[in-house]
Amino acid sequence: MKIIWLGHGSFRIECDNKVLLLDPWLTGSPVLPQDQHDAAIAGATHILLTHTHFDHVVDVLPLAKSLKIPVVGQYDLMGYWGESEGIQTVGFNKGGTVDLGGPKLSMVPASHSSSFTTEEGLRASGSEVGYMLMSEGKTVYLSGDTGIMADMDWMGDYFRPDVGILSAGGHFTMDMAQAAYAAKRYFDFKTVIPCHYKSFPILEQDAEALKTGLPGVAVIEPEIMTAIEI
What we know:
Blueprint lengths: L1 E6 L2 E6 L2 E5 L14 H5 L4 E3 L5 H4 L2 H8 L3 E4 H10 L4 E4 L4 E3 L4 E6 L5 E4 L2 E4 L4 E7 L2 E5 L8 H9 L3 E5 L8 H11 L4 E5 L12 H6 L4 E2 L7 E3 L1
Parallel strand pairs: 3-4, 4-5, 5-6, 12-13, 13-14, 14-15
Antiparallel strand pairs: 1-2, 1-16, 2-3, 7-8, 8-11, 9-10, 11-12
């Protein structure tokens, strides 16, 4: 399995001969160079969406239409987009698991918000979620944007993920110290990859507090378009 950071909360995950784009943010991204956009999405087979804030959703519909691939996400929004946008979707809900032709994806709770801007103003779009990705003998927790929540207790105990990709930039999500606390209390990760940081000055700029808080865990600070092999 290859995990490739596209910056912010966006990832390209290559597993079981599939290419999954998690919350792909290309247009206007402050950290993903324009000349890397084509490589970031090459061969993509699915788009995974955790929620609809602009820094996660702005490229989802254009990519789904241009690449002709399904968007995988929360049932209510997928049903709406399937009808209104004519795209392929895989809609399910928290507690559900779908098979993406090899990788299996379980939807789990997150604690955040989910809305988008329309001509009529701000609109809600279902609920924010995270995922457990099971592929190639590994389980990876894709936290999406979230704060610490008690649900992490059963999620860690039931799924026992090996890898945590954790939002940890603070202000909008957990910060590095909180992510370390959550990982230590609720999970038994072998590897932790922080995200949703460094993109803006308001966010945390390094992962030192995460590393300090998780002795014995491989905390890998991702580099843009550089594969982490799990």
